[in-house]
Amino acid sequence: MNYQAPTSLDAAVDILAGAKGDCRILAGGTDLLVRMHSDMAEPDTVLDIKRIDSLRAISQEDGGWRIGAAVSAAEMGENADLVADWPGVVEAANLIGSTQIQGRCTIAGNLCNASPAADSVPALVAAEAKARIAGPDGIRDIPVEDVPEGPGKTSLKPGELVASIFLPSRPERSGDAYLRFIPRTEMDIAVVGCGVSLTLDASGNCVAARVALGAVAPTVIVVPEAAEALVGTSVDEDALTKMAAACSEAAKPIDDKRGTAEYRVHMAGVLARRAAVIAKKRAGGAA
Amino acid sequence: MSMIHVTTTINGVAQEYLCEADETLLDVLRDRLGMTGSKEGCGTGDCGACSVTVDDRLVCSCLMLGAEAEGRKVETIEGMAEGETLHPLQRKFIEHAALQCGICTPGILVAAKSLLEHNPNPTEEEARYWLAGNLCRCTGYDKIIRAVMAAAEEMREAS
Question: Beta-strand (E) ranges in chain B?
Fold first, then answer.
């Protein structure tokens, strides 16, 4: 195996595009090294992107936030301004693994690992985050939900990598939240995860909403019917009930050791309702 | 394949080593540098027995390549005591009998030290969450948490 640690994005793209055999991106390594350890991955080249300064930065841009692909979840949690703008995204990222994992894992890696149960992804999808993809043909920005195509599969073309994640600027009175259910209190993989982002008007009515579910389909899914149930309401009991039903309806999970499909369908609604209540409160809405 | 030459600082001492590209930092510490305090429990980042800090950030050394340590500051369990003088956490672990077989102990001590550097006055809940990535199959955790809380108190009084 060959280890490369370039110091510029251009150099990283050149290495990736020119690499012979299997070249894997090493950001936090919390998935890649596990795969290497269990012989599920035997890369010819590992391309470490942590020496690229621009990919190590959290920066404000056009009223939003750009988070480099090599920024750890712990670093996101330590950025008070980012937490204030996107508490749901950060709480989702901060649920990945243990303290040790937090010190290394990245949201770009969580996205590219393409697990249906990735914790940060429903929150990023609810936030309408964009992934900036760098490759031999230059830079392109795509919605984060277009990156995973199925378990372990992404839409990235050969020679491409995710360079950063962009969280857009927020209107006044906006809030987001992420909740997941796991059988333990910590250190487990989501049975269901739900991200909700919404915006209220001055009178407390919801004017925009986005709801995303994890671990109930081969990829994280957006549930427009759930958002529609909230928009135009004060996010009251009636709206929440309709939204929960829409989430349960949209959930198409499988049975596995963490939960049955029936249980996941039910929990999708339960978590969506609770996440929406938190998001509403964070947006300044009445209890 | 040629070996990679790495220059780093381990427990405050400049250190150079050669390693293979796919060798983990844990393997380098144990097999090349003879620092066998860090343990391999799972090798997949679940158990925390290999915990070290890199640039003051708590990580699993089994989930990091040795090559990645170039220019970084690594701290391991071997750097915890000062000569024969144990760190307060180490003393409290003995006083509270917070270990049995001992495999998890180095990782838990390194993780607990990192906790108290970030938060000198943690609640029990904060300590339990911080240490959730360190598995112990002997003690049931209660004595570990008591030892950490006692060490935190002593270290606050001393500072």
Answer: 4-10, 13-19, 51-54, 57-60, 73-75
B92: helix, strand or coil: helix
Task: Tell if the CB–CB gap between A2 and B63 is shorter than 8 Å.
Answer: no
Q: What is the domain-level CATH number for residue B154?
A: 1.10.150.120
Q: B50 and B101: one domain?
A: no
Which among A158, A165, A125 has a CA at the least distance from the CA of A141? A165
Residue in chain B closest to A36 (alpha carbons) equals B22
Q: Does B51 touch chain A (CB under 8 A)?
A: yes
Last residue of a domain, which of B56, B79, B102? B79
pTM summary value: 0.96
Average pLDDT, integer, range B104-132: 97
Is A4 a member of any domain? yes
Final residue belonging to a domain, choices B79, B112, B142:
B79
Q: Which of A3, A30, A48 sits opposite B63 (nearest CB)?
A: A30
Q: Which residues of B touch A46 (CB under 8 A)?
A: 21-22, 65
pLDDT tens track for A223-275 = 999 999 999 999 999 999 999 999 999 999 999 988 999 999 999 999 999 99
Identify whether A224 is part of a domain: yes
